[in-house]
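Hi R.,

Here's the chain you asked about this morning:
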Amino acid sequence: MSLRPSLQQRFDTEHAGRGIDLSPLLDVVFILLIFFIVTTVFVRETGVEIDKPRALSAQQLPQSVVLLAITDSGRVIHAGNDIGAEGVRRTLEPLLRRQQRPVVIQADSAAPSGLLVKVLDAAKLAGAADVSIATRTEAGAI
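And here is the predicted structure, written out as tokens:
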């Protein structure tokens, strides 16, 4: 006596091998992931929010610069660390000895001007040939 297969068994045998193949989908996801990783531009920031003053003569500088930030409270920041005005020369000398790069000071518009001059002077004494102050482009600039 032969038993008839159950409905579940018949369904399983008819649909065996039918399924969604996720391999092509995963391939595309990984290719997109690699594409975005390779094309991403990594920009170094100082790690603090600075309200830059405006200037009509603002220019774009190259990406390989040394960034210093002066906050409105008078803190001097490099690579997320508070180095103070006294630490500017000690921090910049080894960096500029390895490779001469422009130094950009991002001073808050409310930062003390005396501190800005002190940091600018320390950067020059550390061996920086090109020291710039970061500004925002004025709205009426040509």
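One quick note: The longest helix spans residues 23-39.

Cheers,
M.
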